Amino acid sequence: MSQKDSSSKIKAQPGVPGAKKAGSTKYKMQAAQLAQEAAKIAAEQEAQAKAQKEAAARGESQSEDTVRGLWKSRVLASYKSKGSKDSNTLLAKISDGKAALEVGDRHKSANVQEVMINTVDKMFDVFQNCAYEFNKVAAGTELEINWIRPFLSKEVTANWQQQENANLIFSGRVSTRRWTMVVKGTTEEVIVFILPADKLIGFALSHNNFKPYFSMIPVSDKLDVHWQIEEHIMPPELFPSIYKELFDGLIRFAREEAHGDEVFTLRQIGIVLANETAQKQEEEEQARKKLYQEQFFQDMRSQDSFKPVKQVPEFARPESPKPLPPVQPQALPQSQTQSQQGTAASTSTGGWKQVPDVSLHNPENARSLAERAAAQIRPQPMSPQMPMQPPVQPQQMPQQPQLPQMHPQMPQAPQPAQPPQMNQQPAPQQHMPTMNPQWPSLQTPAQQANRQQTAQPQMPQQPAQPMQPQQPGYPPQMQQQQPQQRVPQQPQYQQQQPPPPPPRPATFSEALSALLSCLDQELEVVAKAGSDAFAQRDLARADAALKFSGRLTEFRTLARELHEYYGGGKS
Fold it and tell me: Distance (Å, rounded) from C-alpha 403 to C-alpha 464?
C-alpha cells in the first residue's frame, strides 16, 4: 500500500464520530417521548383526582351517576316510542329528580355491592389517616398500627343441606402487635370483629364462633342504598365519626381498657334511642337516689354535735315507787291443840306459821272471800242498847269469828246452856288464796325448816287475845237482824308512807340539758324517717326530712352554746 492510500484512510476516519452523534440523538428523542407520555398520564391522573374531589364536594357518587344515566336513557326511550301526551304524563310523575322505575333483583344486588365496596374503602381511608397520626406517638411499641387495605375474595360456604355457594367478600384488617380488627363486607352486611392476633387463624376458618363488635345492614330502596345500625338509618355525614370510634375501640382493646363483651353502640356518637332513653333515665334516677341518700347520711354524720344522749337527766326521770320496809316476824304463843280441818302445830319450835293477808293486794279475791265469809258467819243477837256499826266495805277482809284458844292451865268461865242449834259451830273452810302466801321473807329459819316437813296446808291464825266473857244466847229471831262485824286490823307492812317531797325546780342549765337530750332523740327519729322515705322512693318526704333535720341541728347548736355559756358544759 502506498503512502497516499494510508493518508486517505486516515483522513476518512474523522467521519466515524459523526455517525455516533446521530445515534445519541435518536436515544434522546425516545427519552423525550417517554417523558411526554409520563407527563400526559400524570395530567390525566391529576384531572381525574380533581374531578373526584369536585364530585365529593358536591356529594355525588358513582351510583348516583349510574342512576342518572339509567333515568335519562329510560326517559328518552319512552319519549321517542310514545306520543307527546304520554311523555308529558311521564314527566309529570317524576318527583325529586328520579323516576319511579322498576328495578330487578340483579340490578339491586349489583348496586348494593358497589355501594358496599365504596363504603368499606372509605372506612379504611379513615383508619389509615388515624393510624398514621397514631404511629407518630406509638412507633416501636406494642400499639404500633399496621394495616392491609381491603381486597375482593370469594368465600365458599357449603353444608350437607345446601350446595356450595361462593360469596364475594371485600375484607381488610388493621392490627397492633396483639390485637386485630377485621372488616368483612358482603351484599348482606358489613361486620367488624376485634379479636386477639393469635386467634386470627381460627377466625379465617370460621367467623361464626366470634361475636361481632360492629355491624351495619344495607337497606335498598329501588336504586337508593342506606345503612342501618341498631334499627336506625344512619345519615352519610355520621360515618366518619363511626369509623373513628371503631379505631378507638381497637386501641382500647390493645390497652386492655375494654372488657371482652363490649360492643359498639350509637351512644358513643351521641345518638340515644327511645328505649335506651327510658332505661338511662331509670338508671340515672337510681344513681341520684343513692347519691342523695349517701349525702344525707354523710351530712348527718359530719355534724360533730350529733351525739345521742342515752341518759336522761335526774329531774326528768319519772318517780318510781319506793320499796316497803321488811316486816319483822312476831312471836306467837305455843299451842298444843291441833285442828281437825288440816291445821298442824310445829313440832320443832312450837310456833305457828304466819301467813300474810294477801286479800288486801287483790280486790277481786277480797270481795269473793268477804261474800263467802258473810254466808258462813254465825249471826249474833243484837241488844237494844248495842249501837249500830257501820257496814264493812267489800275491800276489807272480815275476820272469821273464832273463839280464842286458851291455854290448858288457864281457868275457863262457865258458859250458859245454849240451844242445840247454837252449839253446832260451822267447820272453818280451808283458805286457798290465789297467791302463794308462804313468803320466805316473813318466816324464821325454824319455820322454813318446818315448812319442808309439813305437807298439809294450814289456815292463817290470829294472835291470842285476852279472855272475854261470853254473851248469853238469844232467840233465833233476833240473831238474823244484824250479823257481828269487826273491822280488820291493818298489817304493819301496809302502813301509809309519808308523801314524797315536792320536786325542786330545775335550773336553766338543767333545762338546756334536757332540751339537748330531746333534740338528740328527735334527730334520730327524723333520720330514720328520712331513711324510710328513701327506701319507699318518696323524695318529697325525704327532702322535707332533710330540711327539718337541718333546722333541728341549727337549734341544737344554739342550745349547746347557751348550755356551755351557763356552765353546763364544764361538768
Answer: 10
The type of residue at 505 is P
222: left (phi over 0), alpha (psi -120 to 50) or beta: left
Tens digit of each residue's pLDDT (9 = 90 or more) over 442-484: 455 555 555 555 544 455 555 555 555 555 554 444 444 555 5
Residue identified by cell 381460627 is 202
The span from the CA of 247 to the CA of 174, in Å, is: 9
Q: Does the global pTM surpass 0.70?
A: no
Evaluate whether 349 touches 447 at the Cβ level (below 8 Å): yes
- Which residues lie closer than 8 Å to 295 by C-beta, 6 or more apart? none
The three cell numbers locating residue 380:
249474833
Answer left, alpha or beta for residue 387, where phi above 0 means left and psi between -120 and 50 means alpha.
beta
Radius of gyration of the chain (CA): 61
Beta bridge partners of 166: 156
What single string gives the DSSP state of each residue in 136-194? HHHTTSTT--EEEEEEEEEEEE--SSS--EEEEEEEEEEE-SSEEEEEEE-SS-EEEEE
Query: 428 near 402, Cβ under 8 Å?
Result: yes
| Residue 264: burial class (beta carbons within 10 Å; 0-12, 13-18, 19+) | buried
Pairing of β 224-229 and β 232-234: antiparallel
